[in-house]
Amino acid sequence: MAKQTWKRKWEAGRMRHTRAIQRDRTKRPVAAPPDKETERRLSMLLRPAIEAQAETAKSLGLRKRALPLSVMVAAVLSILWRQLGSGGTEVSRLLRTEGLLWVSKLSVTQQAISERLRTFPPILFLNTLLHILPVAEKRWQERQRPLPPVLAWAQKHYTAVLAADGSTLDALLRKVGLLRGKKWHPLAGKMMALLNVSSWLPLTLWFEQDAKVHDQRFWPQILPAVPEGALLLIDLGFTNYDAFAQARHFTFVTRLKSGLSFHVTSVLHKSSQVRDWIGWLGSGKTRQRARVVKVLFEGEWYAFLSNELDPTVLPFPYIVGLYFQRWRIEDAFNIVKRLLGLAYFWTGSQRGILLQIWATWIFYVVLVDLVDDVAQSLRRPFVHLSIEMVYRGLYYFGQAYLRGEATDPVRYLAGNASWLGLVKRRRKRSLCKSYYLTNPSGP
Fold it and tell me: 397 and 370 in contact (C-beta within 8 Å)?
């Protein structure tokens, strides 16, 4: 009985959060559209990806529709960019009066747009996202800006530094269709991301309708998706002996789960602050060689597990420093859900949910590409910049653009980074800096 009471309180709290976001959006006035330069940047990245879906769209019978993929992408991105409270109504008005992004004025009813948002094939949005990801990654590689020291080292020793994690999506509103009969507000599902922690760009994404599915259920998708010679950073929720045994083509680093069976066979390093051991993990068919590193930080021991046994290939300071780069994927989820609005779903249909998920990640990729451009202009690591403040700074650029005072968003944001608050304040020392404590000469 106590468990049910706790669940009701938890669901009520989640729904208060969802409803608060919905009320906030519906009470806001319609925001201004992006300026022409920002619109051009969006078009440059997205139009080739949209055109590449022509054959798929044709096979789905969309070629003669009034709302094809190009219009739908412009409409959904406008909902996200301008944080519209209701998809169909406001989009219909904006299309009729001013057009959206690269789409000219178009007379379409609110009912038609709402139905389209509910039923449009989400595979087209996913394909668009997968098309722009390598383009954005290539643009990131071509830029010249510093990386944090630990990532700069890893870039030279691994083909990629990736982090995998899942995130449960928020509750749906019980407003239409089958959801009206539900006793509880169902969760929208769960998304899993494989993120490049250096570029902050996802390598690939997955969605599971069951919000309660465990992260380990995604191992069959993750294992073949990780490139040869990559480094994968995962939390202890992914601990799985079978999966670890199959991870021969890449290196992984994770936290050591308490209670794991580990038998030490050799000591690589032992001091008052560090323990570096090699031994046997598990038992039976899944018994395998592994490495455990323990670090003492501010009176507490932190333990890490890796399948890299050679300390010359992966020294223990880098195991600690790199693991805490895993937090970049948590930052990405926070941006997608809180800043870009994936905490609130405007529909309860499965297709509509997927449409919003993939569209929000498209918006995320475009925003990360812009922030990285600003980081290059400032000659600072990407992680030093606040994505939220760059996003907010676009409003001020738009106003300066209308006054004829600025024409380039990157140059404007970089030139006014100080008063716009684009550069984060320095934080106090944390465990991710402990490689300097354990190795005074630096990693």
Answer: no
3-state secondary structure of 307: coil
CB neighbour list of residue 204: distance below 8 Å, 6 or more residues apart: 130, 133, 193, 194, 225
* Residue 232 CB contacts under 8 Å (≥ 6 apart), including other chains: 162, 163, 164, 222, 226, 247, 250, 251, 252, 253
Q: Which residues of 170-180 are buried (b: 16+ CB within 10 A; e: fewer)?
A: bbbbbeeeeee
In angstroms, the Cα distances linking 177 to 19, 117, 120, 173, 189 are: 19, 15, 17, 11, 18
Q: Which H helix or E strand runs over 136?
A: helix 122-142
- Among candidate residues 332, 26, 354, the one with its CA nearest the CA of residue 190: 354
Instruction: Please say whether the beta carbons of 432 and 324 come within 8 A.
Output: yes
Do the beta carbons of residue 256 and residue 304 sit within 8 Å? yes
Average of pLDDT values for 157-169? 94
Q: What's the sign of the alpha-carbon dihedral 249, 255, 259, 263?
A: positive
DSSP conformation letters of 45-88: HHHHHHHTTHHHHHHTT-TT-SS-HHHHHHHHHHHHHTT-SSHH
More confident residue, 387 or 443: 387
| Complete domains list, the chain, with CATH | 31-120 (no CATH), 123-331 (3.90.350.10)
Q: Do residues 183 and 229 lie in contact, with contact meaning Cβ atoms separated by under 8 Å?
A: no
Do the beta carbons of residue 193 and residue 205 sit within 8 Å? Answer: yes
Length of the chain: 443
- First vs last C-alpha separation in the chain: 53
Rounded CA-CA distance 106/87 in Å is 16
Cα–Cα distances in angstroms (integers) from residue 311 to residues 24, 94, 241, 277, in the given order: 53, 60, 22, 10
pLDDT per residue over 320-339, tens digit each?
999 999 999 999 999 999 88
Please provide residue 162's backbone torsions phi and psi, each rounded to the nearest 5 degrees: -120, 155
pTM: 0.86
Going 87 to 92 to 97 to 99, the CA torsion angle's sign is positive
| DSSP string across 151-212 | HHHHHHHSS-EEEEEEEE--BPP--SGGGGG-SS--B--EEEEEEETTTTEEEEEEEES-TT
- Ranges 111-120, 135-144, 194-203, 402-411: which has the least confidence: 111-120
What was the pLDDT predicted at 375? 95
Give 183's pLDDT tier (boundaries 50, 70, 90). Answer: low
